[in-house]
Amino acid sequence: MFKIKRPAIIGLLVVLLVFTGYLNHQLTQQAQRKSSKDYQNHELIELAKNEKYQEDVETGMTELNIDPAEEVDIIDSTKTEENDALETMYTEASKNIKNYFVEYRLSRDKLRASLVDRLDIIVNNKNTSEDVRKEAQMEIMKLGNNSEKELQIEGLIKGKGFDDAIVFLTDKDIKIVVSSAELTEQDMVKILDIVKSETDYDNNNIKIMKKQ
């Protein structure tokens, strides 16, 4: 009977071990190369997207800001658009809309973000006059301050025991919708005190509505 000597068995195992290690190394290198290639392709795609986005922004700035008078019209239109949209959001509270506070808070924030983007185009356009740029920057700051003030007042109102509240703040007035079946005189006084402590609006420019 043919017998394999012990040293030969050990030698064979060593060869198999070395071959297995080499094969594993080659497979690992191949996987790494594929992964690296995929990553590079992903980076190239993202870079192309960013370059396209930047090109679109620059094109948009050129198209929107050829005439300085047109830039002023854009700034003025943002104010009108915001006031009209917020007025609509406030009056919609009288309708039976499910998840009113969630939907219109998102709509309000989306509106503000859109207006800021539009003003940013004017600010970043190299052809914009310095006066118009400053006006656009001030309008951006005002939008940001309004958003911050709205959230602050909403938090204070909810702190008084109301389930929810949404605030719409414009240049001419402030509108508040609170989640409540009824608004007593005491409730109105609480809300008015909060608004007057946080803003300069007088009572005639503070509008409060309940929403069940």
TrEMBL record:
Instruction: Report what the protein is called.
Output: SpoIIIAH-like family protein
Under InterPro entries, the record lists:
SpoIIIAH (IPR024232), SpoIIIAH_sf (IPR038503)
- Record Pfam families: SpoIIIAH
* Source species: Tissierella carlieri
Q: Note the Gene3D superfamilies from the entry.
A: Stage III sporulation protein AH-like
